[in-house]
Amino acid sequence: MKMMRQCRAVLIPAEIEGFGLPALESYINGAPCVYVKGAAVEEVVGPGTPGGFESGDFDSFVAALDEALRMDFAHVLAKRAELLDRFKWEKTIDHMIEIYRRLTK
Q: Residue 103 and which of 6, 40, 54, 61 are 20 to 30 A apart at CA?
């Protein structure tokens, strides 16, 4: 995590990236991420978040990297606050309990 705090951007080039946790960690530590559009990372950071690129498209990747590197730090901090609120343990627990309730009816 210490290294992530020193990054200007975190590159997440995998299409199949599991749960998108590196993107969350990236913003929590104050760095935007560069990610493949349409994958789990985009679900975590939200559609339209700067830094998304089309898989296999080098020009799209370069544009996404440039976009992430030019992000205003205030925007990074706003995204951090949004993600911290969205993924609060309390909200996650309440959401999971609701899912279990629906499944057991």
A: 40
Distance CA 71, CA 90 (A): 30
Question: Do residues 46 and 22 make contact, with C-beta atoms less than 8 angstroms apart?
Answer: no
Burial (CB count <10 Å: 0-12, 13-18, 19+), residue 3: exposed
- For 21, the domain range is 2-103
- Residue 34 sits in a domain whose CATH number is 3.40.50.2000
**Mean of the pLDDT values across residues 18-36?**
91
CA distance 24 to 45: 7
What average pLDDT does this structure show over 50-79? 96
Tokens linked to 7: 């990054």
Q: What pTM, to 2 d.p., does this model score?
A: 0.81
